[in-house]
Amino acid sequence: MTSTASSRIPQEERTRLMRARLLDATVECLVERGFSGTSTTLVSERAGVSRGAQLHHFPTKNDLVVAAVEHLTEVRGAELAAAARRLPRGDRRTRAVVRMLGDHFSSPVFTAALELWVAARSDPALMAAVEPLEQRVGRETHRLTVELLGADESVPGVRELVQATLDLVRGLGLANTLTDDTRRRGRILDQWARTLDTALDGALHATLQETT
Amino acid sequence: MTSTASSRIPQEERTRLMRARLLDATVECLVERGFSGTSTTLVSERAGVSRGAQLHHFPTKNDLVVAAVEHLTEVRGAELAAAARRLPRGDRRTRAVVRMLGDHFSSPVFTAALELWVAARSDPALMAAVEPLEQRVGRETHRLTVELLGADESVPGVRELVQATLDLVRGLGLANTLTDDTRRRGRILDQWARTLDTALDGALHATLQETT
């Protein structure tokens, strides 16, 4: 039965599914046991993948953890873009945008990425892999945030306000790893949304006055 | 010579100095090698303290790392309070306050604390020690920030703006652990200082209008 069923799935698809199982298991391990508690043995057991197959696709622990965080970042990036399309227009948009970002940075992908960042600090080989990933993710998240807020970065101060918003949600994400910080985060982000709206209007107004 | 010199230092003072050497060495280890790369053996070697004496004062690695971060937090807290007394009054005060906080959260004590927070996520015994320390430090930093900004937390929104400021510098601190982020941080915090001043004035103004 099993061999008949599996032979109906093309090899390429089976490989893709196996890789996805390995990467999902790696993220679960990072979140539950941290970087130092994650091992390739534990991941292959959890994913139900043979050691040989796992080592073929990801020869080292670093290969595995970087690929896992990259994979989950792509999945979550797609989820974020989908959620962004459902955001309201008008008055409540900024609040919805910053709350969505706050949730994104408090999700398991943030926790897994945090484990990687911290481990990379004292592991040059891991740093070499993590730094370009982090820069790419940072640029994409920045671009999406600018688009969602309808912010005009040619106006002085606007770029820094968008960056501040992302550094704020990163800080809130870190706070959330110690204790569930959902309620406090909601209050802070609601106030941030009001402040951001006023500041973005103010920056635009100041620029218009200067040019007229 | 050595025994004559050391006999002039009272026992209590010698113990205090030895503890300080152990705790400083622990913070250095956490910053350079991370939590998993820090061991009691390495710390006692680096501090030049015998294993026996080290184990007498700090029986476990967790005792050592929590005491170390607590010690450095106190030292840096005192430094922060001293720096606060030198801050300018008037127009440039908010900028100076947020820049000082930004530097504080990008210092080695933040990096050492970050190692502890992340390790505590998957170590319940460490979490039990880290959580109350983190709460106490959080309260003290919040109280100091309110005082430095001359913020009135009875005005709606002001408490959240102070919290946002601290979550922002926490996020900037995390960004700084991967790459030196000093210049970007400076630009973001200068903009935030302007925005914060306007927001604090606006919150006060709105409350005054409501009450009259």
UniProtKB/TrEMBL annotation, chains A, B:
InterPro entries according to UniProt: Homeodomain-like_sf, HTH-type_TetR-like_transc_reg, HTH_TetR
Keywords: DNA-binding
Segments forming domain HTH tetR-type: 16-76
Protein name (Swiss-Prot/TrEMBL): Transcriptional regulator, TetR family
GO molecular function: DNA-binding transcription factor activity; transcription cis-regulatory region binding
Highest taxon of source: Bacteria
PANTHER family assigned: HTH-TYPE TRANSCRIPTIONAL REGULATOR PKSA (PTHR30055:SF226), HTH-TYPE TRANSCRIPTIONAL REGULATOR RUTR (PTHR30055)
Residue ranges of DNA binding: 39-58
